[in-house]
Specification:
alpha+beta, 4 strands, four-stranded mixed beta sheet
Length: 77
């Protein structure tokens, strides 16, 4: 199943780095958006990061991202 994953991150975000490492470790393709001005334009200014969009469904809570990674067997390095 092809998934379109967009990961909204901040450059110095440790949680963002961990999610990227897990996806990378499993060869999962994703696009990253980490431009602060673009994130503000898209309404992400007051949210915590990372935020993950999977096929148009936004996952905003870090714990929910980790749950998604577990359900899809991507929760290991």
């Amino acid at each position: 199943m092809d998934r379109k994953i967009i990961l909204y991150t901040l450059v110095d975000c440790d949680r963002c780095k961990l999610v990227k490492q897990m996806l990378d470790a499993h060869g999962v393709h994703y696009d990253t958006i980490d431009d602060v001005e673009l994130l503000k334009e898209r309404g992400f200014a007051d949210l915590s990061f990372p935020i993950m969009d999977v096929n148009g469904e936004r996952i905003e809570e870090y714990v929910d991202i980790l749950s998604w990674l577990r359900r899809n067997n991507y929760y290991s390095l």
